[in-house]
Amino acid sequence: MKKILVLHTGGTIAMSADQQGNILPNQHNPLLDTDNEFAGKLELISEEIFNLPSPHMTPERMLELCNRILIAENEEDIDGIVVTHGTDTLEETAYFLDLTLPTHVPVVITGAMRSSNEIGSDGLYNFRNAVWTAYSDAARDKGVLVAMNDEVHTARFVTKTHTTNVSTFRTPTFGPIGLISKHHVHFYQELINQEVCHIDHLVDGVYLLKAYAGMTSSLFEAIDTTATKGLVIEALGAGNLPPETLPGLQKLLDHKIPIVLVSRCFNGVAEDVYDYQGGGVELKKMGIIFCRGLNGQKARIKLLVGLSAGKKGAELETYVNNAVS
Ligand SMILES: NC(=O)C[C@H](N)C(=O)O
C-alpha cells in the first residue's frame, strides 16, 4: 500500500473563523479530525512541521521543509508528499522546493481560500485532491505541483491571482498541466526539465522592487551596497525602465550586485526588445540579467537559490535566465 506523508505548515486551510468572522490559527489542525476516506487505499502519515500563516514563511523555513522531504524520500520509503500551506506565499515555497528537491516522488502543495468552518470551505476538498495527486503514478518526476480547485499547476509558473476567490491559483501564459476529476488525476502537458540545485544554507539580502511610471534612481540609491547580494526588478512591459533609474542601476552593477529583470505584466516574457534610453537593449548591454517567464517573487527565489549555491557571473546568468527553453 502506498505511503503518503502530509506535512502541514499552517495557512487558512488550518484556521477557523470566530463569531465575528475573523480568521484565526488553531492550536489543533482541523484537517487531522476529518474522516479518512483513504483508509484501506493508502497509508496517510500526518506531521505538523509548522503552524504558521504563510506571510510568516521564510526561506529558512522553506529549507527546513526541503530537508524534511529529502529524509522522507530517502530514509522513510514514502511514495508521495502533500504539503498544506497558506496561499499568500504558497507559490514561493512551491518554487523553492521545485528548484532544490532532487525528488522523483510526487510533491504536491495545496491550501484553502476559506477556513475550516466557513460556508463553502474548500480546504478538505483541496486536501483530498492533493492526496490523490500525490498518490498518482503520473505525478512522479514532474517537479513540485500545486493542486487547487480541481486543477494541477506547476510550481514554476503558478501564481495567486485573486484575494478571495477559490479559483485564485492560475498559470498565466502556459495554463495548468492537469485536471482532477471525480475519479482520476489527468495530466495533459509535458514538462521541460530544469536543473535541481540542492543548497545547505541561504544568503541574505536578495530584494524585489517594482517599476512604475516616473521611477527614479532614489530607491536604488537607498540600497545598502554591502548588505545587498542581489536585486530583482519587475520592469515595465517587455522589459524596460524609466531613464532616470539608469544611474542608480549602474551604481549597483559597479558594486557587482546582480540585477535580474522580469516584467510586471501578468502574461508573457521579458526580453531585450526596445532600443531607446532605458529600453531592454540598453539594460541588457549594462549587464542586467533577463529572466524569461517568471514573475517577480519567483525570480527572487531563483536568484536566492542560485546565489546560495555559490553561482556567480555567467553561470548565475544562465541559471536565472531560463525558466522556459
Ligand atoms: N488563504 C490563505 O491561506 C491566506 C492566509 N493569509 C495565509 O496565507 O496563511
From TrEMBL:
Instruction: Give residue ranges for domain L-asparaginase N-terminal.
Output: 3-191
UniProt-listed SUPFAM superfamilies: Glutaminase/Asparaginase (SSF53774)
Q: Which UniProt keywords apply?
A: Hydrolase
The record's Gene3D superfamilies line, in alphabetical order, gives: 3.40.50.40, L-asparaginase, N-terminal domain
What catalytic activity does the UniProt entry give for this protein? L-asparagine + H2O = L-aspartate + NH4(+)
Q: Where on the tree of life does the source sit, at the highest rank?
A: Bacteria
Q: Which CDD domains match?
A: L-asparaginase_II (cd08964)
**Any idea where the Asparaginase/glutaminase C-terminal domain is?**
206-319
Q: InterPro entries given for it?
A: AsnASE_II, Asp/glu_Ase-like_sf, Asparaginase/glutaminase-like, Asparaginase/glutaminase_AS1, Asparaginase/glutaminase_AS2, Asparaginase_C, L-asparaginase_C, L-asparaginase_N
In the record, biological process GO terms are: asparagine metabolic process
Q: Where is the active site?
A: 12, 12 (o-isoaspartyl threonine intermediate), 87
EC code(s) of this entry: 3.5.1.1
Query: Where along this sequence does the record place binding of substrate?
Result: 54, 87-88
User: Which PROSITE patterns does this chain map to?
Assistant: ASN_GLN_ASE_1 (PS00144), ASN_GLN_ASE_2 (PS00917), ASN_GLN_ASE_3 (PS51732)
Family as reported in the entry's similarity comment: Belongs to the asparaginase 1 family.
This chain belongs to which protein, by name? asparaginase
- Protein source organism: Lapidilactobacillus concavus DSM 17758
